[in-house]
Amino acid sequence: MGCLFFAFTSLVFADWVFEENKVFTLSSERNLPILAVFLVEEGCCWSDQLKTELLQKPEFIKEISQEMILWQVFLKQRKEMRNKYQVQECPLILLLDPRGREFARLNFIPFDHKLLKELVSSLVNDFLTICSIID
């Protein structure tokens, strides 16, 4: 039973990156935006709910990881990140370009994976359209 749980956990978190340097390397190599999710590791019912109802869902990970690099940041361990990305409350989702520039901020996060994917995809498409016009 323990091996089955470990295999499931590894599968679920396979596409999440937890290290900042690795996130930006992958984003640059694949030319994909970054979905950065800032969470409180313990003691936050909203962070816990987001993790269990959305971020750990294989269907959400499978769908969204095709379009962007997934990055989870636990702020309790990384307080310097709170200042760098101006995180005032958690959970928070930021959309970043491969250079780390923020182009969208979601303070309210829908727990329905299809709704969130549609919202994030729309924001990414809007950003790409604006970039193509500017270029």
Descriptive tags:
five-stranded mixed sheet, single chain, disordered N terminus, 135 residues, alpha/beta, 5 strands, 6 helices
Describe this structure in words.
With 135 residues, this protein is an alpha/beta fold. Helices cover 50% and strands 18% of the residues. It has helices at residues 2-12, 20-30, 45-55, 58-64, 79-84, 113-134, and strands spanning 16-17, 34-39, 69-74, 92-96, 102-106. Strands 1-3-2-4-5 form a five-stranded mixed beta sheet, sandwiched between helices. It starts with a helix and ends with a helix. Residues 1-13 have low confidence and may be disordered.
Mean pLDDT metric: 81
**End-to-end separation:** 54 Å
Helix content: 40-55%
| Discrete helix count | 6
Query: Largest beta sheet, briefly?
Result: 5 strands, mixed
Record field, number of beta strands: 5
- Class based on secondary structure composition and strand pairing: alpha/beta
Binned strand content: 15-25%
Order of helices and strands: HEHEHHEHEEH
Order of strands, main sheet, comes to 1-3-2-4-5
**Are there runs of 5+ residues with pLDDT below 50, and where?**
1-13
**Rg calc:** 15 Å
What coarse outline follows from CA principal-axis ratios?
globular
